Amino acid sequence: MTAFALDDSFERGPGLPRPGSVLRAAADSIPPSSLVVLAIFSVQLGAGLAKELFAVLPPSAVVFVRIAAGALIMGAFVRPRLKGLSWRDWAVGVGFGLTLALMNLSFYEALARLPMGIAVAIEFLGPLGVAVAASRRRIDLLWVALAGTGVALLAPWGDPAAASWLGIGFALVAGACWAGYILLSAAAGRRFPGTSGLAFAMMVSAVVIAPVGVTTGGADLLRPELLLIGVGVGLLSSVIPYSLELQALRRMPPRVFGILMSLEPAVAALIGVLLLSEILHAQHWVAIVCVVAASLGSTRRGKA
Length: 304
Hints:
mainly alpha
């Protein structure tokens, strides 16, 4: 069942199929690996559109529009219950939301200073670190070294104009938050039914980021064309990929899912070239390949 199935409770004519059943049947007809690839492209296309908005809105304002749009859509479909939650449930949910807000804000700040492929490759160290930390195999030291080599190649040692140290710092913070997001997502899954934990976290995130986003965005946030693009970014970056990933995970082992997700830095670099005309140097492509290979290696032999 997808995360956002349409409500089947309205009246239908005789013999008409339920809309939710139609959507589920359509999703089931697509191979799960294709759903994951579509989710990856959706996320990175959303990031590319967000970066286009940086010409008229600061990253913090774009983050606010994206998270607010995602929270409204998820809240309308999921409607998480707040009554009866223990203080531990609130702590996990609020912590999840704060981590989500900081992760998105730091990533967008990195995206404003770095090419997409570089920003995503560095941020990907977060989930890679979680995978390696959960393992006790000596070969994982090889993947750590490979990932470290990739980051070293991305750093602007000899050419300060090639990348931004501040951007790299923001990407590292985003990666650390991504690691926290993974752990808190698991904790929320144990305390909240279905996708209500993520919906709750997105609402908290929208409230937290609102003061910064509204202050920096100002009156430009009321421009219909910018709001429309922002809603599109929210759909592409949050709602659509999460729905696709959830559907894919119903039909494939988590290990295979992790292997496919390792392609994300390469897809980000490709979207950056095609959508934003971000031409990367050869050493940057080598660095991205190092990070992807490290992620593949750590996931391929890891436990589900």
